[in-house]
Amino acid sequence: MDEPRLTRFGSAQAYWDAAAETYHRDFSGSLSGRANRSAVWRALDRTFQPGQRILELNCGTGIDAVHLAARGIRILACDISPRMVELARQRSGEASLNGLLEFRVLENENIDTLVTEGPFDGGFSSFSGLNCARDVSGIAQALARVLADGASFIAGMTGRLVPWEIAWFLAHGKPGKAFRRLRRDSQDSNAGPVPVRNYSVKEIVSVFAPGLRLKRWESFGIAMPPSYMEHWTQQFPGAAKVLAAVDWRIGQLPLFRNLGDGVLLEFERGWKK
Description:
Helix content: 40-55%
Number of helices: 11
Distance between the termini: 42 Å
Order of helices and strands: HHHEHEHEEHEHHEEHEHHE
Radius of gyration: 18 Å
Strand content: 15-25%
Number of domains: 1
């Protein structure tokens, strides 16, 4: 029974190792990518404070970890990809933040092994890393064991209803892609051979309960076009800047926060009404 899991793990690891080489160019270096990351940083900066020790899942090349460490926050950052972790360590060294940052190759489903290293003061996973996980319920249960009572966990998930995406692919005669996120399992995604599972906010809240309860949530990438429209944002940078500002203002509004490219859900361990 273990062989398919190992095969999938190896496939996912190989995919993200290859993706690491162009990650910054393809995502973080784009105008939409920078706007989305700014939205994530606002949530992280609001939630985590200097002196805390935070667990990061799906750390990628360490961009978010370095940002938080520069504010005096200690980070244990994990990723399935050895190459991503290698690049993250390089970034940490260049920023002279090695004393605050520790990187580890670790699959999300194995974070239970960190129980003896906790409890952590908080945690996060940005940019849909958990959408690629095999067992989000198991991860949520493990988080409840490794986080301190009252600790926050920010889950960055894929949005399901994205007007820009629907309009773009319908205009290009691709209705299957236009509505792909409304399907629970998406075979046509930006994650290559890695299966992507699309969750509603209600489903994620249910999966994280009872150990972690939803405290607040917001969306980003509502007015700002997605990364595959980068040619447009490069052509009209002034308009893109305005749209990014609009995103910041409407991301927490009840109606609009259902329409973003990504969703940020802040959970709290042991939260009570």
